[in-house]
Design brief:
Blueprint lengths: L2 E7 L3 H11 L7 E8 L2 E8 L2 H7 L9 E8 L14 E2 L3 E9 L2 H10 L11 H11 L5 H10 L3 E9 L6 E6 L4 E4 L5 E4 L11 E4 L5 E5 L2 E5 L5 E2 L3 E3 L15 H17 L23 E6 L1 H18 L2 E6 H4 L10 E7 L5 H12 L3 E6 L5 H5 L2 E4 L12 H21 L4 H11 L2 H4 L4 H10 L8 E6 L3 H16 L3 E5 L15 E7 L5 H13 L3 E6 L8 E4 L6 H22 L18
Parallel strand pairs: 16-17, 16-18, 18-19, 19-20, 21-22, 21-23, 23-24, 24-25
Antiparallel strand pairs: 1-4, 1-10, 2-3, 2-4, 5-6, 6-7, 7-8, 8-12, 9-10, 9-11, 11-15, 12-13, 13-14
Helix pairs in contact: 3-4, 4-5, 6-11, 7-11, 7-15, 11-12, 14-17, 15-17
């Protein structure tokens, strides 16, 4: 959530800042703004809603000489999405942008108001710029004032600050929220929350560590660590490929990403499958020495993939596995023992609640592993070990290919552990590896299936809710199907274990309750079918997804006949994603950027 960009150089900074913010739209936002300092004067523009509104406001503004600028897309945390609450925030002669949450802002704000400072916004961010200007009055330099300000902040932040007294300098600090700086041969400096805004502008980038702060000028990049010691930047080459950031002819990024799942799952498998064993070169087998339990911790879609893993780990590897909702786990004084491998799952590697649980596990002395899509992310740098999912850029806020690749990694990991522990016969491991090789083909979206769902979707635009039901690993898939529909259609939906419907929820059954029933041929088919028949008998509208026709279904979406329930899992996953997509399209919603949601949730 929220996106930061910054620029120092002689090009048209307005276009660079707006272009960078456009590349960050996938993170989710409700307002945006930029501030540019040129010839000792600030120009600032803000707008609520889409970036097109900000572009309209800045259409007559041009920079044609050296300038410094900062920009921001905001996802509201403190205060409503209004122009006053949008970033950048202004002091007397300074502007600031910020991602994260300043936890002690109320205390600082109270002190500043007592000293006569007037606040314009309801945000925590505005405290930063006023605190800086307060410190500037007694500091030896603007940098000293900035350094003092950062030391007074509590919470998570990535921030850029510019001030009139230093018109060739951008000050920066990073603690808990992602940020990087890029350079090129023209001596320009670029800041962003992720790689994509810098592609095409920079050759090399430095990813800031927690606690890093400093400044850039035309001739200098100065970075200091959390103790105040100056450090050298660690530059890495930046990819030049922007193809994955384009829609490639699809209506929405989400649609494109559903279709990409075949390719990215193949990437996830590459180099990790032999005929009879799974290889994770990135893992040291001693990571699992002395481990008697695996504890998985995640949020949202990643939680659903992790819940799927609990079935696979216990079934294949015969290792005790538990799962935690990160936002709950971090506040309930959990008991953590050193015979537990603590595994966190996050698409971005920056999810605040999940990152904090990882820090708790590290502090307790547990071995840690992260399943993540973003190399150099905070979780990847902190954990003892990492498995990258290789899903590529995912711009749709509602996750699709991240979920698919996470489940693929967990299936492989369950077999890897089964091999280490000799928990499955070698021939069974080999059989499942052969099945894994079929997953890329099983998630290819067939035109006939997509067209059928497109036609079917017009029947599911009303009613008082949806139940997505399934058993075993199809229960977390039902949860994920319900989440996808909620996220982009704004219709009420619940995922439920099929066998639990009779324990209360069946009271809701009537023709206006839509039941999406997952009926895998190879796993508890008869039991799941009986549960659906209970709903049908009470006149619920049934949409069955199966390779076997179901005579009591009002609608039936067939999948291909598969050799194993895990292949059925992936085929049904695609059906649920496409169904949610098409319902949302018919409702006229913004599929890629649903209201109130953000891609990378870096606040609690």
């Amino acid at each position: 959530m929220c996106g930061i960009v910054g620029y120092l150089g002689e090009k048209n900074s307005k276009e660079i800042l707006l272009g960078g913010l456009k590349e960050l739209e996938y993170r989710g936002y409700d307002s945006a703004g930029i501030a540019v300092l040129q010839d000792g004067q600030f120009d600032s523009f803000k707008a609520i809603g889409k970036l097109v509104n900000l572009e309209e406001k800045t259409k007559d503004f041009v920079t044609d000489k050296f300038s410094i600028g900062i920009g921001h897309t905001r996802w509201a945390t403190h205060g409503k999405p209004t122009e006053l609450n949008a970033h950048p925030h202004l002091g007397s002669e300074s502007y600031v942008v910020h991602n994260g949450i300043i936890e002690n802002y109320a205390e600082l704000k109270k002190e500043l108001i007592a000293e006569g400072v007037t606040f314009l916004s309801q945000t925590d961010t505005e405290v930063i710029v006023h605190q800086f200007e307060k410190n500037l009055k007694t500091a030896n330099s603007a940098f000293d004032a900035f350094k003092t300000t950062i030391s007074q902040l509590e919470g998570a932040y990535a921030t850029l600050l510019v001030t009139k007294g230093e018109e060739e300098t951008i000050f920066f600090a990073k603690h808990g929220s992602p940020m990087l700086v890029g350079i090129n041969a023209e001596n320009e400096k670029y800041f962003a929350s992720s790689d994509t805004p810098l592609i095409g502008h920079c050759s090399d980038v430095n990813y800031f560590e927690d606690g890093d702060f400093g400044y850039v000028t035309p001739d200098e990049l100065a970075i200091f660590d959390v103790t105040g010691v100056k450090k050298e930047p660690v530059f890495q080459k930046l990819s030049t490929n922007k193809l994955s950031a384009q829609k490639d002819g699809f209506r929405f990024f989400m649609e494109k990403e559903i279709y990409e799942q075949s390719t990215v799952i193949a990437d996830t498998l590459i180099g990790r499958l032999c005929d009879a064993e799974v290889l994770f070169d990135e893992l040291d087998p001693t990571l699992f020495d002395g481990i008697n339990e695996i504890k998985l911790c995640a949020c949202g879609t990643s939680y659903h993939s992790a819940l799927t893993a609990t079935y696979l780990f216990e079934r294949h590897a015969k290792v005790k596995t538990s799962i935690e909702v990160a936002s709950e786990f971090r506040y309930r004084d959990p008991i953590m023992t050193k015979d537990t491998l603590f595994v966190v799952i996050s698409q971005s590697g920056e999810t605040a609640d999940t990152l904090e649980t990882l820090k708790m596990a590290k502090a307790a002395g547990l071995k840690t592993l992260v399943i993540c899509n973003v190399d150099n992310s905070s979780m990847v740098r902190l954990a003892d070990a990492c498995i990258l999912t290789r899903a590529g850029v995912e711009k749709g806020v509602a996750s699709t290919k991240a979920f698919a690749t996470q489940v693929t990694v967990f299936w492989m990991m369950s077999l890897y552990l089964a091999g280490l522990k000799k928990a499955l016969p070698q021939e069974e491991i080999a059989r499942q590896i052969a099945l894994l090789r079929e997953v890329p083909a099983s998630v290819k979206v067939e035109d006939e299936m997509h067209e059928k769902i497109k036609r079917l979707s017009k029947r599911y635009l009303h009613g008082h809710g949806f139940f997505f039901i399934g058993r075993d690993v199809f229960y977390p898939l039902a949860l994920e199907g319900a989440l996808k529909l909620k996220e982009i259609s704004y219709l009420h939906a619940e995922g439920y274990p099929s066998g639990e419907m009779k324990h209360g929820p069946i009271a809701l059954a009537d023709p206006e309750l839509f039941t999406i029933a997952l009926l895998p041929q190879h796993l508890l088919y008869e039991k799941a079918k009986s549960n659906v028949e209970e709903l049908s008998a009470r006149d619920s509208t049934i949409c069955a997804i199966s390779s076997i026709a179901f005579d009591k279904a009002d609608d039936f979406i067939p999948i291909n006949e598969c050799k194993d329930y895990m292949l059925e899992f992936f085929e049904m996953m695609v059906v649920l994603q496409v169904l949610s997509l098409e319902i949302s399209v018919r409702l006229g919603n913004d599929v890629d950027m649903p209201r109130n949601l953000a891609k990378s949730v870096t606040v609690e």
